[in-house]
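seq as requested:
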Amino acid sequence: MLVLILIGLLGGLITAVSPCILPVLPVVFLAGGPAADTGPRPGEGKAEEPAQGATGATSTLVADPEAAPRRTRNRRPYAVVAGLVLSFSFFTLLGVTLLSALGLPQDILRYVGLGLLVLIGFGLIFPPIERLLEKPFARLPQRQVNKGGSAFVLGLGLGLLYVPCAGPVLAAITVAGARGRISGEIVELTVSFAVGTAIPLLAFALAGRRVAERVAAFRTRARAFRMVAGVLMVALAFALAFNVTDAVQRALPDYTSAAQKKVEDSDTARQQLSGLYDNSNKELSRCEDGIGQLRSCGKAPAIDGIAKWLNTPGGAPIDLAAQRGKVVLIDFWTYSCINCQRSLPHIEAWNAAYKAYGLEVIGVHSPEFPFEKDPGNVASQARKLGVTYPVALDNKLTTWDNYRNRFWPAKYLIDADGTVRYFKFGEGQYDQTENLIRTLLKQADPKVQLPPKTGQKADVLTADRTPETYLSNLRIQGYVGTALVDDRPATYRFPATIPLNSLSLDGTWTAGYDHFTAGENARLAFTYRARNVNLVLGGDGPVTVLVNGKVTKTVQVHGAPSLYALVNDDKPARANLELRVAPGVEGYAFTFG
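struct tokens:
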């Protein structure tokens, strides 16, 4: 039990700092308000009590400049975060059951949250609306209102709009809620996940309270700041309603993926989370995520329990067993998942390039939240995101369970005989996945003449350019030499030869999940084909660059990670790169042009 609680707690902490929660952060930040309410000073006449808006948190972002301060403890940050976590957890577990029992649309909760945000924003802009919103709290003792009762309601509304990136922990909770499998272990996991989520959000809300308390402009321009806060809330509501925030989130790197995979997809976590369900299709556990070679992972489970099919003739279902002779790529996704959105262009490109050569792409839309079950919502978002291949609406998560899946997105490659040969959880490794697709297509039809790889031209300039390569235990490709040791200094030696598109280490290095850190006598060798070579480096110290054994330049690395140009040639060529790296310098990712 303690292990499961710890996994949930750490999973919540990682989720609460991921790019996917950015849309709610402005409101959480503004929710704190100043750390004191206002009232009469001792010895002065009774001042009119300042209005406590229905937002609680946001209607008193600034103190009334005409009122003398009377210090009382402001609990609004705690109330907002508590409301958010409570409503998110409650409706994640029980939302589907309640909506089905009441016969309500699956996306009504999201619209309620958006409506609350708009109403609260208008209350900040227009005092009559604010007074109307205050009436439900008028019967409560003033002491309780000051403790954040109305802020708690704001948090409840935000919880309905909170759509974090889901890893295995949140996936387990979501599946349990959707299927009605709510056990004591699931409740423990949910509560611990909620507590982990609350900690960073509370820190952010307290920071907002501190800023409002310290900045004099909040006290002298109270009305103006209230109106600005109201406009921001209304704008945020419309941005969320029309998915405007998705573009910003897609542009940001998934900087928590390594930590999430290390914590939530560790052997211990996998055993704990898998134990919440049955042991069907155990053969899929024989294969590891993202391994760069084809393996036999068991017979492909059926695509079952589908509510509706999109992008098929007349909405006809696709029978997986009838696809024998074809290579099938199954992609588990959900439209509000930013990680999924970032992977969709790659999948669509593969569908366009290889469909005529025997590839069948099937998107299995397994919803994370109730509003993602609405077929109209899915169809609209699929069109917006450019998805043209068949999509199965797995609203009951039956197919998700069949594949023992635990990630959004997740890709499964099935060969022409119906055997799962490879799967990849999360983003990344697109070049590797495409290479394996091409291998399976050639195995299915040895005579097939495949087109150039997607995103590449057929000429010699780019056809075999070295791909982007990460210095990361999680994502590294093409590494040769001494086996990598995780997260501690180790001594490495170059092999006798380093093949094209491969790299190796020599000297002392610490190989981590985000970057490699140089130690004494650290060297890195890379055999590449490209015109330009760039590397993201951080720390302080020189890096000497050698191309084909000759010193070409020395770059001085200083400060936060930044992109450094190592090679700039006039035309592409195959070459041997060697870097002699000062101790403490960190390497993150190579890119080639």
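The first helix runs from residue 2 to 15.
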